[in-house]
Amino acid sequence: MFNKVAGYTAEGTASFYADRLHGHSTASGEKYDRHKLTAAHATLPFNTQVLVTNLKNGKSVVVRVNDRMARSRHNIIDLSRAAAQEVDMVREGSVTVRLTEVKKEEAEQQEQLPVVSEAEAHQIK
Q1: Distance in angstroms (rounded) separating the CA atoms of residues 99 and 114
Q2: Which CATH number fits domain 5-104: 3.50.50.60, 2.60.200.30, 2.40.40.10, 2.20.28.10?
């Protein structure tokens, strides 16, 4: 899916934010939105894109770091609820994951849908 990666990779445990934090300010100044694909990390710069892969089931999601967490011997990343759902970890609460930094341009390309006008759509048929 993402071939060109920047330098950072890590493996460890991921957890996710409690719903009660929805709407609270993050360290970057944004409001935490449980519906967005975001995460907290101890050291990665804000707006870093990270591919998070659940090592138990192979499911992955790209998140954007927008918050800080304390360095922990237990967790390497805290995911938003939406991200936790994407990797199917809500029931367990925490899972072992692999983190791989993704170049921002690649993540944006994956998020953008091709723009097709209605006229072009009719010509394709």
Answers
A1: 28
A2: 2.40.40.10
**Tell me, what's the pLDDT at 9?**
93
Q: pLDDT by residue (tens digit) across 34-70?
A: 999 999 999 999 999 999 999 999 999 999 999 998 8
Provide the token pair at 24: 């609270």
Two tokens at 75? 């967790």
- In the chain, helix, strand, coil percent, each to 5? 20, 40, 45
pTM above 0.85, yes or no: no
Question: From its phi and psi, is residue 101 left (phi > 0), alpha (psi between -120 and 50) or beta?
Answer: beta
CA 94 to the chain's CA centroid: 15
> What residues contact residue 76 under an 8 Å CB cut-off, 6+ apart?
10, 11, 12, 13, 14, 41, 42, 97, 99
